[in-house]
Design goal:
- With 366 residues, the chain is α+β, with helices and mostly antiparallel strands.
- Among the domains are: 132 residues, Gyrase A, domain 2 (2-Layer Sandwich), CATH 3.30.1360; 83 residues, Aminomethyltransferase beta-barrel domains (Elongation Factor Tu (Ef-tu), domain 3), CATH 2.40.30.
- It is built from 9 helices and 21 strands.
- Helix 5 crosses helix 7.
Length: 366
């Protein structure tokens, strides 16, 4: 039987259509995926992300632990609350998970994906033990993401005692407010907050957000929003067999200092050299725009002059009114190229573009 978040009853009260997602019973929509998508792009929407797991990390060597564990470098986090996005890799250079790490007064907080939580903790635990670091999964928390151009104003209206703290947040910063934690992060390409709070207070806060005019939004809208924003989804754009360089995550790797030996570094660094040399057979991530009939979907074949690739995620963009996709294609493929996509057995032209497709409600690709 799927797990249920602390907000399960709130979803039913909002007429959420529940589905099994990564072992959790979650709302796919509350009646209209398009309406929910548009609410986030134009006003404010909220998502239950309680199926994700926050892990608090404590210990004198916590910084060293993360410098070994992930590709990005937590030493860059110059002040409390500052956050970074990174991949966590296996010895073969594949992506175990992507995650966000916050510097905190007690050490660090890392947020990992729902479907990979058990795998992540099993991987992290022996490395943590080698550094004398304590991992504390916060299963007592719920998490609500409030996203959109009016999200911050409406979140402050729903939680006025936290308004000053919310106003103080920089983008990609998270700070505690008692037992709550407010982070100015998200997965939609819009401004907003991801809020962790005690599970027992989640439904009351959800209802306060409803009263403030924040629309509930389900997994369907979350996927179209993140795809428009050019953001990876674990299991689609990346997994244990995909390198971060092929998944468009090279920008998250801190190569300096050269002596920082994060797990998977030697393999990924060798691939980086091969890419610089233009070695054949390597793939990279690109965006595709398709204006023909039908919709681009995951696993469709992409045919290029340099060889074949594959769509990793595709959808009809509610904001742009065209079909868009993220794809892995041969390294020689360039922005502006026209490629062919196998759409229901027929090769159709699609244009290669630089992602994201949409940011802050506006089209950003050429």
């Amino acid at each position: 039987m799927p797990n249920r978040t602390p907000l399960f009853d709130a979803h039913l009260a909002c007429n959420g259509k529940m589905v099994d997602f990564a072992g959790w019973e979650m709302p796919i929509n509350y009646g209209s995926q398009i309406t929910e998508h548009d609410a986030v792009r134009g006003d404010a929407g909220m998502f239950d992300v309680s199926h994700m797991t926050a892990v608090d990390v404590r210990g004198e060597r916590a910084t060293e632990f993360f410098q070994k564990l992930i590709g990005n470098d937590v030493a860059k986090l110059a002040f409390d609350g500052k956050a970074l996005y990174s991949g966590m890799y296996n010895e073969a250079g594949g992506v175990i998970d992507d995650l966000i790490v916050y510097r905190t007064s007690w050490g660090y907080r890392v947020v990992v994906n729902a479907g990979t939580t058990d795998k992540d903790l099993a991987w992290m635990s022996p490395i943590a033990a080698s550094f004398g670091v304590e991992l504390s999964p916060r299963r007592d928390l719920a998490m609500i993401a409030v996203q959109g151009p009016n999200a911050i104003a409406k979140a402050k209206a729903a939680k006025p005692d936290a308004a000053a703290l919310i106003d103080s947040l920089q983008v990609f910063q998270g700070l505690p407010h008692g037992e709550w934690f407010f982070a100015r992060t998200g997965y939609t390409g819009e401004d907003g907050l991801e809020i962790s709070l005690p599970a027992g207070e989640a439904i009351a806060f959800w209802n306060q957000l409803l009263a403030a005019g924040v629309a509930p939004a389900g997994l369907g809208a979350r996927d179209t929003l993140r795809l428009e924003a050019g953001m990876n989804l674990y299991g689609n754009e990346m997994d244990d067999s995909v390198s971060p360089l092929a998944a468009g995550m090279g920008w998250t790797i801190a190569w300096e200092p050269a002596g920082r030996d994060f797990v998977g570094r030697s393999v990924i660094e060798a691939e980086r050299a091969d890419r610089t040399a233009g070695k054949a057979g390597l793939l990279k991530q690109v965006g595709l725009v398709y204006e023909g009939k039908g919709v681009l979907r995951g696993h469709m074949k992409v045919v290029t002059e340099a060889g074949d690739g594959e769509i990793t995620s595709g959808t009809f963009s509610p904001s742009l009114k065209v079909s868009i996709a993220m794809a892995r294609v041969p390294l020689a493929t360039k922005v502006g190229d026209t490629v062919q996509v196998d759409v229901r057995g027929t090769l159709q032209p699609a244009r290669v573009v630089k992602m994201p497709f949409v940011r802050n409600g506006k089209k950003v690709f050429e």
